[in-house]
Amino acid sequence: MSNATLLISLTILPFAGSLVAAFLPANARNIEAWLSGLIALSALILTTACYWSVTAGGVMRYEAQWLPTLGLNFILRMDGFAWLFAMLVTGIGLLVVLYARYYMSPQDPVPRFFSFFLAFMGAMLGVVLAGNLIQLVFFWELTGLFSFLLIGYWHHRAGARDGARMALTVTATGGLCLLAGMLILGHVVGSYDLDEVLAAGELIRSHALYLPALILILLGALTKSAQFPFHFWLPQAMVAPTPVSAYLHSATLVKAGVFLLARLWPALAGTDAWLWIVGMSGLVTFVLGAYLAIFQQDLKGLLAYSTISHLGLITLLLGLNTPLAAVAGIFHIINHATFKASLFMGAGIIDHETGTRDIRRLSGLYRFMPITATLAMVAAAAMAGVPLLNGFLSKEMFFAETIAAHDGSLVDQTLPLVATLAGMFSVAYSLRFIHETFFGPPAVALPRVPHEPPRWMRFPVELLVVACLVVGIIPELTVGPVLETAAYAVLGPALPQYNLAVWHGFTLPLLMSVAALLGGALIYRLLREHLLGGVEGPPLWRHLKSQHIFERVLVTVSWRWAGALKNLLGTRHLQVQLRLLVGTALIAALWSLYGRELAVDHTASPALDPAFALLWTVGATCAVGAACLAKYHRLAALILVGGAGLVTSITFVWLSAPDLALTQLLVEIVTTVLILLGLRWLPKRIEGIDSGARLRIRARRLGDLALALVAGSGLSLLAYAVMSRPAPSSISRFFLEHAYTEGGGTNVVNVILVDFRGFDTLGEITVLGIVALAVYALLRRFRPASDSIDIPEQQRLQNARDAAPPLRPPGTTLTDYLAIPAVIMQLMFPFIGVLAMFLLIRGHNLPGGGFIAGITMTVGLLLLYIAGGIRWVEARLHVRPVRWIAMGLLLAAGTGVGAWLFSYPFLTSYAAHAELPVIGRAPLASALLFDLGVFVLVVGAMALILLALAHQSIRSHRTPSAKATVTPPSAGET
Amino acid sequence: MTFEMPDFLLALPEIWVLSMACLVLVVDLFARGRESALAFHLVQFTLLAAAWLSIETQWGVTATTFSGTYVADKFACLLKVAICLLTFLVFAYSRDYLRKRDLLSGDFFLLGLLGVLGMMIMASAHSLLTVYLGLELVELCLFAMVAYDRENRVGSEAAMKYFVLAALSSGMLLYGMSMVYGAAQSLDLAQIAAIAANGESGLLLAFGLTFILVGVAFKFGAVPFHMWIPDVYQGALTPVTVYVGTAPKIAAVALFVRLLVDGLGALHDQWQVMATIIAVGSLAVGNLFALVQTNIKRMLGYSTIAHVGFLFLGFIAGTEEGYSAALFYAITYGLMAAGAFGVVILLSRRGFEADLIEDMKGLNDRHSGFAVVMLILMFSLTGVPGTVGFYAKWLVLKAVIDVNMVWLAVVAVIFAVIGAFYYLRVVRMVYFDRRSDGEPLEASTGLRIVLAGNGLAVLVLGIFPDSLIMACKVALAG
């Protein structure tokens, strides 16, 4: 098989297996186990097959295009170090599968277990084989995810959920930091390719971004490896099924952190920052973990803290910045994986066969399971560093490293002492593990009667223990070449001299080992009584549970503080939001002004006329008054708005724009009436508003006023500045020049509307028609609120008075309130109609036009309705606004289509003049017909809206509540 | 003055959508009563066809029409395709939900379709006028959609607030535009760019820029103009929330790129500082406030704000890579957000909105497949490698690091880490908390398929993101 095939199949195999495992039936325990076993075995064989390619610094690479836009390829890369890890992952994986087959109970959903397990194995292999940084982080996060699912496998247990959650929170957060660090690293090197990164050590260490990158990467690695101060999640993760613990915490998950440290050792190590951060973290973890392990009452808890401690040892070795220490670290990775896996499995067997893991309850198990007991004893001895076992070798290398002086500082000098102390602790807890469990009087009242486990469940433990022994006795022949291959990959050709022999003579490290063994035994002897009766955890420290601190900090920061911040700054009130919006805009505007000058061309504006100023003062007052009253008294506000509109209209007259002024005036009238009719259905005034007596409210209102003033004047100033600039060349000149020659009219505005921009106007009137129809459709089903359905107060009072005359004889009560205006309007209406026609016809040359005429007509109609009353008008005048709208639209469109008859484009107009009696010379452009359409449509549309609104008042009287009160015939009906 | 016949064919996608909207309007009038099935299918067909038409007529073309107010280029094309497809997805989610609540009518889809038209116009805008027209069309549709369920007081209140604030911000945008017009004496973006580049009339442009930025930031929902987002997200019907949260974000990118890059790109130095403040503010407020939410829609609202902060990083970089990164972010975010809300829709039933984070409890027991979908989505929103959200974050971070704003990247990462907490909280609910009534889901098969497809899309894009990244890059390269 070629390198590429080897690497690809190694990566894909576990994931494929995971997929298959997920879909097997829930009771297929044996098939699952066989499948997983075969996958792990094949992976192991594949890895072994790679060995000859990676010895002596060989590197296998497979590269495939992945993200060419980012210059990122999918790279699988295996060197000696990666090979070592791949061996551990697949080899121990295989053993754990075998073990799990017997460990898992038939009730457990096995497919899920093996599926997650294989996926985790794949992720782990992905981390190990990753050839670029991003890929590494990707698989790194995958290991976090699958370990989360594995730890939480028994998710019906609260402990499992909490443990899994904490593991995920800590490692995923670390993973994100790692990601950031990797991105910086990639940025520094200019490539994410691992080979290039490893070769660029000098560049990285001297770069300004070295420290941030280092810290971020270390955050990732140290959280994963449960190093101080992030060590607290690992013991919580012991709620996982034991095979999971055996796998995750011996060879894989937690080793990923130290794997990363060693992987990036050539690129990042060698600085003081590395020494202090990595070394100190490792040292503290090493000692602390060992100390805490002594006081655990749970077998797996003890192993968990021991794992933390041993990882600390590895971290410390990698942090010491010397090649020899790094070799020792790598060596210890192998040793720890073997003895810790076997110990976890041993603890699992005990748990499985006795039903408890509590050290205080277990005792004298040697009688019941002598083989298991022997195996566990050997493994524990390896953990304690007893000679002739593998743990002894790496520990002695470590002791030798602590003695070799580095810089002579205080820390450096105390290091051997601290190391020996930690060694004593580890001897103590190993001793405790063995002694309490297997010796002493036979345990009583165990949940199950203990006996030896099934043959094949014990087999993995046997195999691993044999490995411990063999490596411990003949290291040179067994692990020697492997270690050299792995160390070569990390340290390069400049491999330091080291001696794997068991016996080095009477040296200081040996003395330290002996001291550790004796001291450990002594510590255990002294503490034994205390421990047996004691509760979980060491004295004093017991109360300082880091996981509680973690939870509390998390809750405080992520819930309380964030909540307080939200209460402080967040709001759901519109007013506050508006204030913020306007305020921010103001600040932003001021900011862009900062340091510059707003150039206003004063010369462009003429001198201010006092009358005009007065006019605008009135207008502004009206506007401000309307704004103030809008909340309290709508009618008054509306009247004031009308005032402001009037001023606008007069302003147009002042500025010589009669067309605009006329339009503005008429639109103003119509809209005011429209709003008035709408107001009928709203409460007249809002009661119960705080009048501003309280200081806070008053202050807030003043603040709003100030904000409004500043923002408003700022806007005005800006608008003024813009308007005082020279106007851009516009198309107005064109219209002025061609209005008469081409459009046949002197009223340029009108010519634009009906001729040059006739198409736009057609669109606009169509929209107007649609709007009218929409309003009508909406109001047709309008049901007013019940409180506004009654007759208005004034009317009701008057009606009551009229209905019950105290002194007046019947028949003298006044009923026609608006008789005189009604008569006047009856007279006026034809004149208004004529005026509208006049405005329409002259529109082409003088102020006027279809739109204005239409509104004029509407106003006439409106007045008729107001003065005469709906029923009176409609009894005499059949207004059919919908037909008017249709007619208007047809007229306008027809005019446009008419042009086609003369083979001109749509809406081409023809201009001519005719001498009419009385009126005189009048334009007779085809545009007039178009304007007529506009007129008809505007009348129809406005009338439709007004009538729809007006009819509401009739409808309300038909409601039962209105009928209850006495309703005299409405005005004008008699 | 001569009349020039514009090249209508260039704007074929928009014309198609408009014609179909009219058709649907009429069809829906006569085919009501059968749950507006015909209208729904027509609208969906319209969206797919519009996406196809955009690719057919506009990819690889760079031309303007309608007197230079409309441009067809790769950027516009990509945006339109993304907008149409995302909306397609959103509508697919919506139908079931609306039917169960007796709210199903063609109006909803029609409003959505018109909104899409507005977004497409924004994408193709080449003049301030077109930008504004498109924007207003979208907003009008959005107001109506937020207030769609008239019986719902919270929704009506949200719509009202949204309307007031949006009107104000539109006013500011318009104000800024008028100032830019005053300075450049043209509405054409190319001419504005020319004026901005030669450096004259600086102050007026600066003011215009400021107000435009305010308006654009509001449309994005960036801090301090974010107030409407949580209210609208929470108050509106969930399908409307999905709609608001997906395609309009892409349209907002169009708004930004058209106005501030195509138009005022030369003033990048000036808006960079403001954009930085906006970005950092959004990251902070979005992530911190999201932590304490109990309503998942509101939480996702705040998370949107945080994502907008991330997206802004791409703009801040001011490079072609940065802009394309922002575009990529918007598109992928739309996909993720649609999925997340899709899960909310999946869990809801009549009378039960499933809009509390607690309602996610025990999803794994109820249906492990959708638990995985939610897991992928939440991981992707967090930015975990291997999901598409990771590349989105990576690209924008890379863009700012490349312009030597490392501190900004660090700040962003810190907030991303904080953000991880509330996403993981959802994951925890899904997997580890139990609920008393582990009743099975009652969503229809169609909805399930769509949701699964959405999750799959996020996953696949997470593994093979290259083509989309490439497309975004090419789109910005012109």
From TrEMBL, chain A:
Domain NADH:quinone oxidoreductase/Mrp antiporter transmembrane: start-end pairs: 130-406
One Pfam family this sequence matches: MbhE
NCBIfam families (alphabetical): 2a6301s01, PRK12648.1
One GO location term (cellular component): plasma membrane
Protein name listed in UniProt: pH adaptation potassium efflux system component phaA and phaB
Transmembrane segments: 6-26, 38-60, 80-101, 113-131, 137-154, 166-189, 209-234, 246-268, 274-295, 302-320, 371-393, 463-483, 503-524, 576-593, 613-630, 637-655, 661-682, 702-723, 761-779, 817-839, 851-873, 885-907, 927-950
Keywords: Antiport, Cell membrane, Hydrogen ion transport, Ion transport, Membrane, Transmembrane, Transmembrane helix, Transport
TrEMBL record, chain B:
A Gene Ontology term for the protein's cellular component: plasma membrane
Transmembrane segments: 15-31, 38-55, 75-94, 106-123, 129-148, 160-184, 204-228, 240-261, 273-292, 299-317, 323-347, 368-392, 404-424, 445-464
Subcellular location(s) per record: Cell membrane; Endomembrane system; Membrane
Membrane topology, record value: Multi-pass membrane protein
Any one Pfam family match given in the protein's UniProt record, by short name: Proton_antipo_M
GO terms, molecular function: NADH dehydrogenase (quinone) (non-electrogenic) activity; NADH dehydrogenase (ubiquinone) activity; quinone binding
Keyword set includes Transcription regulation: no
Function: NDH-1 shuttles electrons from NADH, via FMN and iron-sulfur (Fe-S) centers, to quinones in the respiratory chain. The immediate electron acceptor for the enzyme in this species is believed to be ubiquinone. Couples the redox reaction to proton translocation (for every two electrons transferred, four hydrogen ions are translocated across the cytoplasmic membrane), and thus conserves the redox energy in a proton gradient.
Oligomer status and interactors: NDH-1 is composed of 14 different subunits. Subunits NuoA, H, J, K, L, M, N constitute the membrane sector of the complex.
Record-given protein name: NADH-quinone oxidoreductase subunit N
Species, as recorded: Nitrococcus mobilis Nb-231
Lineage of the organism: Bacteria, Pseudomonadati, Pseudomonadota, Gammaproteobacteria, Chromatiales
